[in-house]
Amino acid sequence: MILVTGGAGFIGGNFVLDWLAQSDEPVINVDKLTYAGNLDTLASLKDDPRHLFVHAGIGDREVIGKLLAEHDVRAVVNFAAESHVDRSITGPGEFIQTNVVGTFNLLDVVRHYWGDLPADKKAAFRFLHVSTDEVYGTLSATDAPFAETNRYEPNSPYSASKAASDHLVRAWHHTYGLPVLTTNCSNNYGPYHFPEKLIPLVILNALAGKPLPIYGDGQQIRDWLYVKDHCSAIRRVLADGKVGETYNVGGWNEKANLDVVNTICGILDDIKPRADGAAYASQITYVQDRPGHDRRYAIDARKLERELGWKPAETFETGIRKTVQWYLDNEQWVGNVTSGSYREWINQQYGA
Questions:
Q1: What stretch or stretches form a coiled coil here (predicted)?
Q2: Is the pLDDT score of 53 beyond 80?
Q3: Distance between CA atoms of 83 and 99, rounded to whole angstroms?
């Protein structure tokens, strides 16, 4: 079986669901269930014997060590991370504890487990670390997209903490021989996304008749990757990636934030028009830009396509329409995650 950390979060939850939809190999799912972890995402697996959920963090060495010792774990896929740049600016300490100290603890426990495996299982074992394109810093409008050879230039507490975790993974491979793989992805979107991030926030605010907050001039450019495409890329890397290598995962969809918001508004105008007939884009509101806001991210995913034959199945146009429809069809999931604490944070971040 495999052990997945952070498997009740957005990307991790989608990965667990997709894994068990395509494979009978069981999953041990370890998640600390912080604000962004949500067992409702995994509701369809409640009685599935292939899914073992364990409430713990990646820093819980005793729990992780016991799980590894008691189960025949052939791979660890590490999604567990604090991931929101805005939250890292207001509270960086939690990001250091989870993304840096937590990753160290996980690596160290896994190293000892791996070191005691029989030779054949030791050779087959993999530790896959899921990271972000933000470790590479920012790009100008004319710069080439990030390649795996780009140097690290993180600009936020979040990206700095993820860069540190990437370096730890690399060091555990080169020093101890732990068979690691690293993926660095662009901005994910899709089902089960906690609505602090741009796309779900805009969808839900639009439907609620609330302002659609746009940082600065809205011309910050991101590459957008449909989450199920990301999950398929991780499965591909886990199966055939070269030990010690890094693979960038992108959607080949560079979009300015304002264009993303206008696209969402257009889809909602089409499939769920406002009662007053006005365009959802009339709700767009510009707010003060966040400190140190990176201007552009772009991913060069050619290595992954060239070496492992992977490329995304969704365009932004197909993926964003599926995403909007998912939020319209899953009001109960949305209602359960948009708690009082979430509303307080949104008001703090963007203004009431």
A1: none
A2: yes
A3: 9
Angle, helix 103-115 to helix 61-70, in steps of 10 degrees:
30
The span from the CA of 33 to the CA of 126, in Å, is 25
Residue 242 lies in a domain: yes
> Which sequence positions are flagged as catalytic?
133-134, 158
pLDDT-based confidence at residue 36 (cuts at 50, 70, 90) = confident
| CATH value at residue 36 | 3.40.50.720
Distance between CA 190 and CA 324 in Å, rounded?
8
- Domains held by the chain: number: 1
Position 334 in a domain:
no
Write out the residue range of the structural domain in which residue 246 sits. 2-189+227-250+293-313
In a domain, 333, yes or no: no
What average pLDDT does the structure give for the chain?
93
Calculate the alpha carbon distances from 87 to 36, 70, 268 in Å: 12, 36, 28
